[in-house]
Each structure stands twice: as C-alpha cells, then as structure tokens.
C-alpha cells in the first residue's frame, strides 16, 4: 500500500508548527453602554469583539490562560461533568418546541439554506459536509480531476458548461472557461454580507472543500453570522425543547492511507487541491474534546461526512464518544435512511466482523508509518496524548468476528468472549441523509422527546409505464369494481393485462379464451396437484 510521505506531524518545524489550534478562550463581560459583547482571545492575539448573541450574557467565571488552562491533549484533565468550567461551550438556549433541519451536500448553493429552512419551518440547521467552503481564490488551487467532479454535480454551474466539461477538450478546464462560468460556491456572498443566513447553521466540512478557506475561518479572518463550524476542537450545546443537544463533529473523507497525511494543511485541518480528509490526530483531539465537555444529562449527536455504517473506525469512534445519534451523508442517495446496527446486522458477530476488517486495514497503515510517526512526536506531549486517544479507539475494536467487546465493557478471559453490552448496538441510532436537492430530515424536539420527519423526492418510475405496447391500454375497473373488458388484440400471442382485484371478483371472471403457452400461474403459491 502506498503511504504518503507527508506526515501530519512534520508539515512544519516543531518550533514553528501550530498543529494544535490555539484554543479559543472566551469570557462574557458585563453590559457596556447597553450592549453585550463577547471577547474572544487566543494565546497570541485578540480578535475584535462582536455582539453577544447568547441570552445569558451575565458575568461568569471561566478559566483563563494561566494555571487553570489546559490545551487539548494536555495531562491532568478535569473530571467528567466539568462542562460549566470550560470557556464558552457554544451554549444556545431556546424554550418551547423546536425543529432542527438536517441536510447534506448543498454544494455551494447557500441561498437554498434559507429556502429549505422556510420550507421545513426549521429553527436550526445541521449540515453534514460538502457545504461549499470555496472562495474567489479556490479555483486556482483545485486539481483538474476534482474540478471536473465538483462541476458535474454543482447546482451553480450551467448545464451547457457541464456538458462541455464532460465531453472534454484541449487543455485544462480552467483555461477553457472564464472564472465567472465556474462558480464553485456562494460563500463569498455570505462573507461580504450580501447574503445572510436566517437561522443558525451548524456544519462540518466534507470531502470537496478548500482547506485554506477552513483555516481562515479557524483563525477568524473569515466570519459569517449564524454559521458555526463543528470540528474536533469545537462543539456546540443546544438547550432546546427540554433537551440538551451536544453537537460533536468530524469532517472530511475517511481514507486509511491518508490518516497520517496533513496535505497542504498548516494546522490540524488536513486537505489539499480542493479535497479534504480526516487524520488520526483529529480523531484523538475529538475524543479529548468530548471528554472535556462530557455531561451525562446531554444527548449527543455525532455529525460526520462519511457514513459510520461503512467506516468501521468511525463506528467505533461514535461508540467511544457515547453518541446517541449519528448524522452523516456522502452516499448521494435519493432517499435518506434511518437505522441502528441491530436492524442491519443479523448477529453481533456479523457486526464485529465489520469492525475487525476496518481494524486490519488500519493496522496495515500503522505498521508502515509507525517508525516515522513515533520519533516525530517524541518531544510533543500533547500530540502523544492525542495519538494515544486515537490508538485506544482502534485497540478496542475486535480482531476477529468472534471476540472482543466493541463497546468497552468487561471481556476478561475466554468465558467472556463474545459477551458484550448490547445497549449501543441497539440504542445508538444512525441517519444517513439524501442530498439537499432531493430530501431532508427534521428533528422535532418538544418536552424532552426527539421526533423525526423525513422527506425525499425519490425515484421517478414513470419510464416503466412509457414502455407499454401501444394499442393495449391497461385494464381499468368499472364503477362496481368489475374489470372493464379489454379491446381485442391483433396479437393473440400476448395475453391482455389484468388488474389486481379481490379473490371473489377473480373467481367470477370467465376463463380467457386466448390460448396460453403453458399452464397459467396462480396469483399466490398453491400446493401442486396430486398425481395419484
């Protein structure tokens, strides 16, 4: 297996590298001149204050970068349930019934977010990737192959241009079309303020995004009101409808041989040439973040671009995060799906087999790069802890289909082999979404209960009716429920179509005079006649 030589740990010299994002610290201050402001501070710089959009902006004691400050991966973590001690948990309060719209793959058509929110009567939007994180400079960085893929499915590029790209031609696509004919996203309109989001949007990045744009959002160079990016270093807490919803997210594609490759990323965000993927350090940091904000009274939603049902390591990660729901996309179906592992696996061993196969694939990569990775992080304790978190996820995965406990329960000795806690196997629910152009999911939250509503445009089956032979219209039922006689056919070899009627009507129907090629098939299976 070819392993990329560019490691996430060696993108820059360690004296200069910022592989761990500076944790954004915030504290709310008392009202000033009638306005509430939220001061955002990083260890190296201050960002401009912005108006506080939280309903509880009273002064509150938060940790400051000093003796009480702990970066992700640092030792001496606070005990679980210490969420109130952390700086700015992204807490949103809202009373009464609430609707959360879950969609996927808007592909840069960001105006549609407001339209979909109105259509679904949504108060919040959760988006699962391929959002359209491209700006005006992204076109020059995107690879030719990726550009063709993005253009093929983009709702912003005109159909004539799509056809011309698909048919091919001399030279690269960028040289054959002016930039105004290759719009990748409406994100610049959001950044400039020309287009505004009507409701809060919580999103992870997908497989086709620009890593430079995401880094500008992380540093604060790009800001869009009502747009919240959920990643390994940031989670959000929505206290709505009597439920505390904790949003945990992990963006990018899951590609085993890229788990240690940071690409063009300058921080922990991995990607390059218009594509993005997940790294093992991101998984380890997400575990660290989830541990810091853990509160047993919360309901946890794990938002990913790749489907945990197809990626065993993501499935195990969702169990490690103690997720109650997972919401994903990336399969581009016309219908959404709702399932738990118990409903799609015949046995627990069958489920273990999926995890064991994923573990074997990871170990192949890990054994190849282990000799380079471990020396690279020898002097960085924080990264060692993050890597340890991620490796512990894999270690808990079963090696064979018949053994190991994927849910972290006791499994000591051969007597306990195969005995697992089936609560996550049955209770953790997964939603895989259709593309936003074809359907969506709504979580309706009221009085502590989370209901669901799923809509889909679906498939078009009208082509089947168009293949009927002309001159033989389908049989229609009369007013009394008796089939109307079909007109005589000039081709006696083709039996006339009959409609589905009740058994009593079928019994009263006279025998068809047209000769058949063989004995007629009954509508339902019947026992064979006796030969005696």
UniProtKB/TrEMBL annotation:
InterPro entries: DUF2433, Glutaminase_GtaA, Metallo-depent_PP-like. It comes from the Eukaryota. Residues 482-498, 522-532 have a biased composition (Pro residues). Residues 463-532 are annotated as: Disordered. Residues 335-464 form the DUF2433 domain. This is Nucleolar rRNA processing GAR1. It comes from Fusarium agapanthi.
């Amino acid at each position: 297996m070819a392993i990329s030589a560019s490691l996430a740990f060696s993108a820059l010299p360690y004296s200069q590298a910022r592989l761990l994002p500076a944790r954004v610290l915030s504290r709310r201050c008392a009202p000033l001149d009638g306005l509430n402001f939220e001061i955002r501070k990083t260890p190296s710089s201050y960002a401009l204050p912005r108006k506080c959009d939280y309903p509880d902006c009273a002064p509150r004691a938060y940790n400051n970068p000093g003796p009480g400050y702990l970066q992700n991966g640092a030792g001496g973590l606070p005990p679980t349930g210490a969420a109130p001690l952390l700086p700015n948990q992204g807490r949103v309060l809202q009373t009464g019934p609430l609707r959360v719209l879950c969609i996927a793959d808007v592909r840069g058509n960001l105006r549609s977010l407001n339209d979909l929110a109105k259509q679904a009567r949504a108060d919040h939007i959760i988006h699962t990737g391929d959002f359209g994180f491209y700006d005006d400079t992204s076109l020059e960085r995107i690879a030719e192959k990726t550009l063709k893929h993005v253009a093929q499915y983009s709702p912003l590029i005109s159909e004539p241009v799509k056809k011309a790209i698909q048919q091919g031609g001399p030279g690269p696509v960028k040289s054959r079309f002016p930039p105004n004919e290759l719009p990748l996203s409406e994100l610049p309109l959001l950044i400039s303020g020309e287009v505004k989001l009507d409701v809060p949007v919580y999103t992870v990045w997908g497989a086709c995004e620009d890593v430079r744009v995401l880094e500008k959002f992380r540093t604060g160079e790009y800001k869009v009101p009502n747009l919240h990016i959920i990643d390994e270093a940031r989670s959000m807490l929505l206290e709505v409808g009597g439920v505390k919803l904790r949003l945990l997210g992990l963006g990018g594609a899951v590609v085993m041989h890229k788990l240690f490759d940071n690409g063009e990323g300058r921080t922990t965000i991995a990607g390059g040439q218009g594509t993005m993927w997940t790294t093992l350090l991101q998984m380890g940091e997400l575990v660290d973040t989830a541990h810091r904000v853990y509160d047993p009274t919360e309901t946890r939603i794990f938002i990913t671009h790749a489907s945990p049902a197809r990626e065993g390591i993501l499935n195990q990660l969702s169990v490690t995060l103690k997720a109650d729901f997972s919401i994903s996309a990336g399969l581009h179906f016309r219908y959404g799906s709702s399932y738990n592992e118990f409903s799609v696996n015949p046995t627990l061993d069958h489920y273990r087999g999926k995890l064991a196969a994923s573990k074997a694939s990871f170990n192949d990569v890990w054994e190849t790069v282990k000799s380079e990775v471990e020396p690279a992080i020898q002097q960085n304790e924080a990264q060692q802890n993050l890597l340890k978190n991620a490796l512990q996820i894999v270690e808990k995965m079963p090696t064979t289909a018949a053994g190991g406990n994927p849910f972290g329960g006791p499994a000591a000795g051969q007597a306990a082999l195969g005995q697992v806690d089936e609560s996550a196997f049955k209770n953790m629910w997964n939603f895989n979404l259709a593309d936003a152009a074809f359907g969506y999911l709504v979580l309706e939250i009221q009085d502590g209960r989370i209901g669901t509503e799923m809509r889909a445009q679906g498939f078009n089956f009208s082509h089947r009716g168009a293949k009927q032979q002309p001159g033989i219209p389908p049989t229609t039922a009369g007013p009394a429920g008796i089939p109307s006689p079909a007109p005589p056919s000039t081709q006696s070899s083709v039996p006339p179509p009959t409609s589905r009627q009740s058994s009593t009507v079928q019994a009263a129907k006279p025998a068809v005079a047209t000769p058949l090629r063989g004995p007629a098939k009954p509508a339902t299976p019947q026992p064979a006649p006796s030969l005696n």
